[in-house]
Amino acid sequence: MNGRESGRLGLAVLAIGALSAAPPRAGAQVTAAAATPVPIESSMPAEEAAMRPAPDVDPARVESLVADDLRRMHAATAAELVAGAPPRAFHVSGSFVLEHTSGHAIIVLLGLAPGAPASLPVDTEIEYLRYSVAVHDDGTLALMDRPSRQDLVAGVSEALQHEAAAIEAATAALERARAALPAGRTSWKAALRSATYDARLPRERFAGSPGWSFIFDPWDEKRGGFHQVLLDGGLGVVMVDGRAP
């Protein structure tokens, strides 16, 4: 089981508990200076918790709900979270329906839009700063869980501090491995498909040290995947294409 799968399994437990009767976690409230956040629901009606299939939901509605909450928390840009940071948007970078919830729970991923200092061609996703969104039988949406503002500040600050050095370390690792650049690309940075900083946040849910994951084109049929470089928190290379360096 990889890190994302284990993270999803843990989130499944958390979300299913929330759908039954779990109270909002203490860290879910923002600082006094921030506007009132979108309310967190503590439970669902019993018949919805029984997991009848949920209605289809337009992803734009989910994104709008989370974006509004981030604005209320003064957390819609890196500059709002970290003094002196560039005004990069901090926003929804992806989502997925949580397994074993019949569509009643959607996990929303957050990330920094491209920009200084690294100027990557993709968002920098920051794990595990995620929202849990409940889908009621009537199609209405509600927030079930959110990251604390303290964790948002920590994750964004750490990502900004190490992002540029991390992509340099990852591309250097591919060059040492003599991987071939995809056609039409002049650098590994230009071939980047995804960038993830695993901040191991919130600390009370995740043990272990932070790390980075970068995925690059091209797809290789023989290898059965894209190129991937894993780095530890000190930017040391942990793995290149599934092998230790």
List keywords for this structure.
245 residues, alpha+beta, 2 domains, 8-stranded mixed sheet, 5 helices, 8 strands, 28% helix
Largest sheet at a glance?
Answer: 8 strands, mixed
User: What is the overall shape?
Assistant: globular
DSSP strand (E) fraction? 25-35%
Termini, distance in Å? Answer: 21 Å
Measured as a percent range, the helix fraction is: 25-40%
Number of helices: 5
Order of helices and strands: HHHHEEEEHEEEE
Q: How many strand units?
A: 8
Structural class: alpha+beta
Mean pLDDT comes to: 85
Structure description:
There is one protein chain. It contains five helices and eight strands; from the N terminus they run ααααββββαββββ. The protein has 245 residues and is an alpha+beta fold. It folds into two domains: 3-153, no CATH class; 159-240, no CATH class. Strands 1, 2, 3, 4, 5, 6, 7 and 8 form an eight-stranded mixed sheet that branches. A hairpin with a 7-residue loop joins β1 (90-97) and β2.
Can you summarize this structure?
By secondary structure, the protein is α+β, with helices and mostly antiparallel strands. The protein contains 5 helices and 8 strands, in the order H-H-H-H-E-E-E-E-H-E-E-E-E.
Topology overview:
Layout (H helix, E strand, L loop, with lengths): L2 H18 L25 H4 L9 H14 L5 H4 L8 E8 L7 E8 L11 E12 L5 E5 L3 H28 L15 E7 L12 E10 L4 E8 L4 E4 L5
Parallel strand pairs: 3-5
Antiparallel strand pairs: 1-2, 2-3, 3-4, 5-6, 6-7, 7-8
